């Protein structure tokens, strides 16, 4: 799991049928979390917004956390951070 900041959103009119109704956000992981690998697109499972600090699950944990086992998901926002001492 990584921690990052939501910096934008993605709109995809045409997508896999298992992703219909899903909201996609762009997350910039904190440098200490991903060694500067860059931004990721994650499904928003908790109602996060731009500017919020979020917890992101990756891989199969992302699909399980969203109850979308058959969807092509690599990353999912599974929590919003209220207080994160030492994250940045």
From TrEMBL:
A GO cellular component annotation in the UniProt record: carboxysome
Protein location: Carboxysome
InterPro entries, per database record: EutN_CcmL, EutN_CcmL_sf
Keyword Cell inner membrane belongs to the record: no
PROSITE patterns (alphabetical): BMV (PS51932)
Keywords recorded for this protein, A-Z: Bacterial microcompartment, Carboxysome
Pfam families attached to this UniProt entry: EutN_CcmL
Record protein name field: Ethanolamine utilization protein EutN
Record organism: Anaerocolumna sedimenticola
């Amino acid at each position: 799991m990584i921690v990052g900041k939501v910096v934008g959103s993605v709109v995809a009119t045409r997508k896999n049928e298992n992703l219909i109704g899903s909201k996609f956000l762009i997350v910039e992981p904190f440098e200490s979390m991903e060694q500067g690998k860059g931004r990721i697109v994650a499904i928003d499972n908790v109602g996060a917004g731009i500017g919020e600090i979020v917890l992101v699950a990756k891989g199969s944990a992302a699909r399980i956390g969203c109850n979308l086992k058959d969807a092509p998901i690599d990353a999912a926002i599974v929590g919003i951070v209220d207080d994160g001492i030492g994250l940045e």
